[in-house]
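Late entry, evening session. Most of the bench is empty. Finally got around to the prediction I had been postponing all week. Sequence below, unchanged from the version circulated by S.P.
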Amino acid sequence: MGPGPSSVSPGVLAAMSEPPIGYLDPELFELLDEIRDGLRKLFRTTNKFTVPLTGTGMAGMEACLANCVADGDRVVVVSAGYFGDRIAELAKRLGAVVDVVHGEWGEAVDPAVLRAELERGAPPVLVAAVHAETSTGVRQDLAPLASTAHEFGALFLADMVTSLGGIPVNLDNWEIDVAYSAVQKCVGTPPGLAPVTVTDAVLESVQQRGLPRANWFSDFKLLGNYYDVPHMYHHTVPVNNYKALQIALAEAFEEGLARRFDRHQAASAALIEGLEEFDIRPLAAPEIRLPTLNAVVLPSGVDDALVRTNLLVHHGIEIGGGLGKLKGKIWRIGTMGYSADLNNVERLLAALKSELHR
């Protein structure tokens, strides 16, 4: 019940144990077509280039930036947490001129602040923001940020690592150009895949610039030639992770996305209510608080590392500590994917009671 990876279902585990097939096997491309359709439903997009890239969420982040940003481009990052700052760091490594719109950790960023930044300096090529900030448990409203970015002629990139499959996303309605996620959180498989989706317009603009990508492995043009006809070899893909993702998506749609989102909300609400007994309260306000990742403030006198270690050793339960400026000040408790279950919440609350009274 940490910030990821989450637990996975028995069906997903069984899929991981099946015999692997070849990376050019026709059966694999049938499987990939089914997965890609499922990811489009989760993202709520019609984007043709919607694929499960090899790697975790960080691979998705780097792939999107490497395809959209060239040396000298201006990139504006909306950041109110650890992973917003990570986007800025990667963009700088790719040679971009990066400006960061900083927000308070634990709060959402006002779109007016982004507008003020975009009105200064050179026209931006890309604006980026995190939908569900894993370091603070905050949900950022993306639609007004994307609209503002487009007014200034910029592409809009969204990090959906801790939102996809756990809370509603609507890529096309929000007019998001590029997005990435990870399967080990709300989607419900072991780590190893990063769903990425890109509009046709972005792909065309990338190719028209005629620039070689800074990262060969994540070049969207080369990858498109693998995922689509002519299915040219690119790299040895993690075929069993694909099988697991096929099952996870099927389970999500069988449950129904609305019921799935409600389950995440119910697990989070039960956790927050139960933590009040220990004077442990959420970092974020209710209207922007994530139900998938619960960032909660430790009361004075609690030994962060000791309690988390004892939960793991004595109870078999993992929760996460704070990152960056929140290290030692908060816990990050995941109620996502297969782990978003009221029984798990009750187990954790009982274990916390035991450890905090120890």
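Two things to note before I forget:
The two ends are 21 Å apart (CA to CA).
The longest strand covers residues 49-54.
Will write this up properly tomorrow.
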